[in-house]
Write the structure tokens for this entry.
Amino acid sequence: MTFDPYKIREDFPILKRKINNHPLIYFDNAATSQKPKQVIEVIKNFYENHNANVHRAVHTLSQEATELYENAHEEVAKFINANSIEEIIFVRGTTEAINLIAYSWGLHNLRENDEILISLMEHHSNIVPWEILSKIKGFDIKYVNVNEDGTLSYKDFENKISNKTKMVCISQVSNVSGVVNDVKRLAKTVHEHDALILVDGAQSVPHMPVNVKDLDVDFLAFSGHKMLGPTGIGVLYGRRDVLEKMKPFHGGGEMIRNVFFDTNTRRCVITWNDLPWKFEAGTPNVCGGVGLMEAIRYLRKIGMENVKAHEEELTRYAVRLMRKCEKVKIYGPKGPSARCGIIPFSLDDLSSHDVALFLDNYGIMVRSGFHCAQPLHEIFGLNSSVRISFYIYNIREEIDRFIEVLKEIEQI
Amino acid sequence: MTAIEDYVARIDETCGKERDFIVVLKYEKKDEAIAKILKKAKIQKTISSIIFELTFKDISFRLYRTGKAIFRKLKDKGELQDVLIDLLL
């Protein structure tokens, strides 16, 4: 399929909107993506025609909903090249996926004298659950340094990994700088130390081909809403043999096979359901799963290589023009292929929120602040930054307009 | 009786050591609120008719035509509420 962003834009109703009397330019894709009409239609159709609870009833509607929900797991498995749906757990998003690993794996496997490694470029959601758990279990957390350009210090990683290391938590793409980490290289070293690797794929899976077998990762977490799907649905991929040994995260319906009341002990004896349902307690987000399935089908039609190439081209173009702005300072690595469609910057001594509000006045949506990654900002020596981030529907003309407004801000 | 909630939709406190307060005015009342603020605060600078740099009782802040304002170096949310009461009521 030929990649045509102008044709793609026709599928996104929100892009016809005006904000403050200006055409909407949406450059906050690292926070969440917009939704194509195909995804919106599938969600509407689900509630109009197929809505029922799954895995619970023999009636027709429940069978239809169950089939759709299981197909959604299949679609995700194919998308990241997992072995089967047993390795695909639906969660609310990346944050919940990481918390699931922390509590289902970490709570039972980490103890005093153990260590986990976390990079300093992580989103708070890949830091905070582990810090909370370390206070309970007494294991140590070693933070892997980041170089001045935002890239991971592989040297520091090699120095810090040891036989005490049980888990390495790393994002494939930084949500602040867009730096792409060499996960395959990291996974090889992690496994040589008999540890596990958890990859935060929130900023990679929506933007580039990701193959869990090729990367050889143990866990991969990502969110549906950043890849054209609805909010409230995300994915935890886990290697089957690791997941089978793990205890459930939440207890309730769906995740159990039997709750047998033993009249002798007067206690319930519980056996867990099979994978992946063992980790999906309660009524799941069925419609969210169906919406995510359609989003993935949309992305597969375009081709993830095309998505990656388009964003690289936009990044190259934007960085070239932004470098001509005297007061703009760009952070992160120099080469566009070293970053994934994300450009953080500051403008002289203006606060990031001022820049964002000025751009908002012209209908340009960007993110300002810490982007939930305060440690990395401290490394960059920043109180906060402005972040633009691209997706399949962004075009060069939007960047031109953004640069025009940026130049106007420079005059302040 | 009028309250600041009649004009203010939301107050966001940003993260970090130097915390800013972003005041979002109610869309349907923003023009009225902006007029009240401009009447009471002193205009230091106007930029492209989009941003007003203002001072009020030794407090500097920026007001945007889109109905948002950024307040810096305030002690806490209580101080901000007091300033908003003086500006809007």
The CA atoms of residues 141 and 352 of chain A lie 31 Å apart. Chain A has 14 helices and 17 strands.
